Amino acid sequence: MTFDQIISDLQKKIYYPVYFLTGDEPYYIDEISSFIENNILDDNEKEFNQTIIYGKDSDVASIFSYAKRFPMMSNYQLVIVKEAQDIDKIEELVPYIKKPLKSTILVFCYKYKKFDKRKAFAQSIKKTGVYFESKKLYENQISAWINEYLRKQDYSITPKANLLLSQYIGTDLSKITNEIGKLFINIPQKTQINEDHIEKNIGISKDYNIFELQKALGSKDVFKANQIINYFDANLKENPAVKVISILYGYFSKILLYHYLKNKSRNEIASALSINPFFISDYQIGAKNYNINKLSKIISLLREYDMKSKGVENISTSDGNLYKELIYKILH
After folding, report:
1. Which of 46, 189, 260, 295 is at 20 to 30 A from 128, Cα to Cα?
2. DSSP bridge partners of 53
3. Exposed, middle or buried, 249 (CB in 10 Å: 0-12/13-18/19+)?
4. Rounded to an integer, what distance in angstroms lies between the CA atom of residue 111 and that of residue 30?
């Protein structure tokens, strides 16, 4: 079952006796378990029928004991096992999983890693309950995810503002939703979120950011590129070299790829580069200013400075000076 299917069933009060939520993306696991915790039982029922335990403080015998109890003055009792990845010999719960108590809703939150789906434990859950694998999104999926998440909340977002969020916050969905939550506090629904909103409410500069640096480098605007680098040097906590160099590596790799896509349609180019078609002109400009040979050298430079930013063959050069050296070599 997908995340949306599980939430839809829960909203319709279609419950299963066992939910096993696993995977390396905690966001969906937290969302499902929170919905179950907050919506199945009312406040009066929770006092006697809701139990929340943690894997490191539990064992198979205690989980058996909780799950086998009958509800008091309620149709269900709810048992949520958080950090279930810390339970020793969890497979020994198979006898209960095969014949679960219909009045118990048993939820396992097995985070940060995938459970082996081939094991009898997982196969038993699939027959009697819900087995959900929460997968980490790739970088090229984040932009579309932000668009859809905002759409469901009755907002929209400009391509540039979306890019700022996705590039600065990364692929951690919990962090993304926390930052977007800051926008919801001050911006009414049906608003299209733009770069001004991002700067005012989240603190990402609309003028001095990695997106503007890419544009400056792509157009060989030396003055603007150095302005941004000086800003990064003064704000290294928000702009660490490891992150910035990694993003630039992706940017110049896409310009290199663009050279081999010149006869393709806009949609084909956007798909191949994993970008919004809105930004194709930026890559066109970059390809005009950097030939294939120069791009190959730049990519080698970025690999070199990525290692230096991590301390390899670099004892004392600061991130700020690494930035300045790198940008100079790219532009000259």
Report:
1. 46
2. 81
3. middle
4. 9
For the record, the structure tokens of 189 come out as: 């629904």
List, in sequence order, the alpha helices (H) in 155-311: 159-169, 173-186, 195-202, 210-218, 222-234, 241-258, 266-273, 280-289, 292-309
Cβ burial of 199 (10 Å; 0-12, 13-18, 19+) is: middle
Q: Indicate the residue among 178, 202, 226 that finishes a domain.
A: 202
Q: Helix axis angle, 241-258 relative to 292-309, nearest 10°?
A: 160
pLDDT digits (tens, 9 = 90+) for 109-162: 999 888 888 888 899 999 999 999 999 998 889 999 999 999 999 999 999 999
Residue 60's Cβ-count burial label (10 Å; 0-12, 13-18, 19+) is middle
pLDDT for 315 equals 65
* 277 DSSP assignment: G
The SS3 assignment for 236 reads coil
Six-digit token pair at 211? 């997106």
| Torsion sign, CA atoms 164, 170, 175, 177 | positive
Question: End of a domain among 119, 134, 149?
Answer: 134
β-pairing verdict for 77-82 and 156-157: unpaired
- Domain span at residue 238 reads 210-331
CATH assignment of the domain containing 191: 1.10.8.60
Is 316 a residue whose pLDDT tops 80? no
Which two structure tokens, joined as six digits, stand for 100? 């679960």
CATH of the domain at 84: 3.40.50.300
Phi-psi region of 313 (alpha: psi -120 to 50; beta: other; left: phi over 0): left
Residues in contact with 294: Cβ distance below 8 Å, sequence separation at least 6, in sequence order: none
Q: Which two tokens stand for residue 228?
A: 């941004």
The percentage of the chain sitting over the pLDDT mark of 90, rounded to a whole number, equals: 78
Three-state DSSP state, 89:
coil
Please choose, from the candidates 262, 328, 322, 326, the residue with its C-alpha nearest in 3D space to the C-alpha of residue 292.
262
SS3 332: coil
- Which residue has tokens 């700020």? 320
